[in-house]
Amino acid sequence: MSGLRDHSWVRPGTSGLWVAPAGCWIDPHDPVERALVTHGHGDHARGGHQEVFATPETLAIMALRYGAARDTIAVRYGDTVELAGGVSATFLPAGHVLGSAQILLRYAGERVIVTGDYKRRADPTCAPFVPAACDVLITEATFGLPVFIHPPIEEEIARLLETRARNPDRCILVGAYALGKAQRLIAELRRAGYGEAIYLHGALVQMCRLYEEQGVALGPLALVMDATKEALKGQIVLCPPGALNDRWARRLPDPITALASGWMRVRQRARQRNVELPLVISDHADWTELTQTIAEVDPAETWITHGREDGLLRWCELQQRPARALALAGMFDEDD
């Protein structure tokens, strides 16, 4: 759209978003010499980088998943680091998962914010999103269509607990992404007054422990493998989404399959995954939050990536806001 300037010092490259004067990449999908990482999900954080700038929590997550990088620079929220070529970077909370950050880049009087993934709703497991003024806002658009309006999480947790109460001889098996979603579900269940042990698939244990080491209280947790089939009746069990219909689930007492994801707004996706109880719970901004953020930050330009770019581009056009789509390689939809 007209009115766009050439901010060529930040641009898409072969490995992600390239910051030319600083000689670094943001969320590169290939091993690089210098990387700035917004958060620990696999489509943003990869192993093999020589030098990594990230929040202390994200560095801990990356070390758990990929092993420690050769050189790591921990940047706390609100802190600014000076990079090469006159570029500085300030890390601000993104509200997506533990340690997730927006990266505010400054160069030659311009301010560019790379949001990474973010949400605007309260989450007891991570710091809330902080809006900041900028010339260019680079925003995700995972749920960048008007159909994606996420309900209050309290309503979805209530549905989960009501289903459990109606089925005392069955367990509720909830698929939840290992980083962020599982811990948020646990914390929201605690906030709703659920004090019983929550049972975990073994693949979720290490990340839950890391969250607790970082000060996020999760309450009593137990391993499915340590419980009898009889003991699991009436219990809530969390597993990675890929394990919902796995052989592992056969040890459970007539499980009601649930999946916590923003994609559960789409009924066809729920049917494809054989989900009996779709829970519309997302760690990404929905349509309202995306448009709210653009309006609140009020950038001179909006760059859109990682999702449904056309819908948000059209909204910007109708609002007379200069915008463009970035075709960043290596991005994919999470189970969210």
UniProtKB/TrEMBL annotation:
GO molecular function, one term: RNA endonuclease activity
Swiss-Prot/TrEMBL keywords: Exonuclease, Hydrolase, Ligase, Nuclease
Name by which UniProt lists this protein: Ligase-associated DNA damage response exonuclease
Keyword Nuclease annotated: yes
Domain Metallo-beta-lactamase: 12-177
NCBIfam families assigned to the protein according to its UniProt record, in alphabetical order: Xnuc_lig_assoc (TIGR04122)
EC number annotated for this UniProt entry: 3.1.-.-
InterPro entries reported in the protein's UniProt record: MBL, Metallo-B-lactamas, RibonucZ/Hydroxyglut_hydro, Xnuc_lig_assoc
Superkingdom as given in the UniProt entry: Bacteria
Coiled coil start-end: none
